[in-house]
Amino acid sequence: MTPLRSSRRSNVKVHPDPADASTLREVFGTFATGVTVLTVGGQTPHGMTANSFTTVSMDPPLVLVCVKRDAVMHDSLAEAGGFAVNVLASQQETVARYFADHSRPLGRAQFDAVEWAAGERTGAPLIADAFAHIECDLWRTYDGGDHSIFLGVPVQVRRRSEEDALLFLCGRFCQLNLTSTG
């Protein structure tokens, strides 16, 4: 493989090895994402901050979440058969940080730090004041390298119209100030 030539613009970083993990993380981080907390209910409920969420299809309706194979959420989600995606609102950065913290308690105790209610269809915790909630039945699971790709069928959805969503870009939480242009 031939190394990339240097760019004329001095602020452009050139990396000859695209397989370098830190480089990949830096480059992948240039794509802005929403911030979610995935949750599962049951005997041992669990939550996890995730930005690897997207819609897949409208017919049939499908969403996708990716979970690292060694994460507690991986086996929890596979066993639960259903999950919820809590799309966080712009003021919920502390919630995102909390569910990303590996030192938080496990099980039901981890939800003592937030206000929540059990989802009507899945029993998965729905975090109060989230921008949107999407309860899903697990449809299929696929191999995705060091992650598994979980596809879910939305069975209940809710959205708060007066909020903006929390975003993540270049390793930082961000908020948009949306204004109408016309």
UniProtKB/TrEMBL annotation:
A family per Pfam: Flavin_Reduct
Q: Which domain of life is it from?
A: Bacteria
Question: What's an example of a GO molecular-function annotation for this chain?
Answer: FMN binding
Which key words tag this protein in UniProt? Oxidoreductase
InterPro entries, A to Z: Flavin_Rdtase-like_dom, NADH-dep_flavin_reductase, Split_barrel_FMN-bd
Domain Flavin reductase like: from-to ranges: 28-175
**What name appears for this protein in its UniProt entry?**
Oxidoreductase
Which source organism? Dactylosporangium siamense
